[in-house]
Write a structure and sequence with these properties.
Blueprint: H1 2-18, H2 22-39, H3 41-55, H4 60-82, H5 89-93, E1 96-99, H6 101-108, E2 114-118, H7 124-133, E3 138-142, H8 148-160, E4 164-167, H9 173-180, E5 184-188, E6 197-202, E7 205-210, H10 212-220, E8 223-231, E9 237-241, H11 253-274
Parallel strand pairs: 1-9, 2-5, 2-8, 3-4, 3-5
Antiparallel strand pairs: 6-7, 8-9
Length: about 300
């Protein structure tokens, strides 16, 4: 019953947001997120701690403002996502600039597909929609929500934007088939998850990080393209596809996984440092520590 109510509420909210002008929807999203910021003490304090420790900030007011803007960015992200069903590629191009398509073209010319590597920075769902709007087929690996109804709605909205999601916990065959069709595979690799991973440095501390992008790239020959989308002061977006990540291939599989996972993690970190107000600092990124075994997860 609870699952049904969540699903019904989400549908009703989605239909209402669809009818709103984009600017008003973003205002409402930021306002609601501010309320969440003020009420969610545990999430807010965790974000404070992570920001202070990672960026070595000693100004409490500056930290508070960054965290508030972080919550507000997520609120705006939600509103933009809920407007996907009415968003045509032409409309999307009006507020999202897309740069670096030549890197995708060169990667696909090799015939092995390409891995779009990104993080929970900016509006990552809009990044996927933008890639598709520019003519590239994309599937994204994502974690299935606990609520089946909400997960179904989430997948439906993604499909309306032109891309599909592959369950993170399911077989990797769909992901490999995507690359075999010479398409793009989107992976977010900046959170502490229950997938196979290694410990690498992230903001000066060991962080358990999924090595899936590296393992897939080394097995298939697909290149890894670091790609990010950043919200601009006027709420437009700038999406940039960067040059392929150079991969170490020494023949030592485990060592190559660690070295290359560290490489892409440093790339993600560099972008978060530039736009700290657009990352998910409330996430328990350093929850798993080296002394813990993967089995205990």
């Amino acid at each position: 019953m609870k699952d049904y109510c969540y699903g019904l509420t989400t549908k009703c909210v989605g239909h209402c947001v669809l009818r709103l002008p984009r600017r008003i929807a973003l205002f409402i999203g930021a306002s609601l997120a501010t309320v969440v910021f003020l009420c969610s003490r545990q999430q807010r304090n965790r974000a404070y701690t992570h920001l202070e420790q990672s960026l070595r900030l000693d100004d409490p007011f500056a930290v508070q403002q960054l965290v508030r803007r972080c919550f507000q960015n997520l609120g705006k992200n939600l509103m933009e996502f809920l407007q996907f069903p009415r968003m045509s590629p032409e409309q999307l191009h009006q507020f999202v600039t897309f740069e670096g398509s030549a890197h995708i073209d060169r990667a696909l010319a090799q015939g092995n597909g390409a891995i779009i590597l990104t993080g929970h920075l900016g509006n990552w769902e809009l990044l996927a929609a933008s890639i598709v709007a520019n003519g590239y087929p994309l599937s994204a690996i994502a974690r299935q929500l606990r609520s089946k109804r909400l997960d179904k709605i989430l997948r439906l909205y993604r499909e309306k934007a032109g891309y599909s999601s592959i369950d993170r916990d399911a077989s990797v065959r769909r992901a490999l088939r995507c690359l075999k069709r010479n398409e793009l595979l989107g992976i977010l690799a900046d959170v502490d998850t229950r997938t196979e991973g290694v410990f690498v440095d992230f903001f000066g501390r060991p962080a358990y990080t999924p090595y899936g992008p590296v393992a897939i790239a080394l097995k298939t020959g697909a290149v890894i393209l670091p790609t990010f989308i950043i919200r601009q002061p006027d709420d437009s977006h700038r999406a940039v596809v960067e040059a392929p990540l150079p991969l170490q291939q020494s023949g030592n599989w485990q060592q190559d996984l660690i070295v290359n996972t560290q490489r892409f993690t440093k790339v993600i970190e560099s972008h978060i440092r530039r736009y700290p107000e657009q990352w998910i600092w409330m996430h328990e990124r350093w929850k798993t520590q080296p002394q813990e075994t993967v089995r205990s997860r």
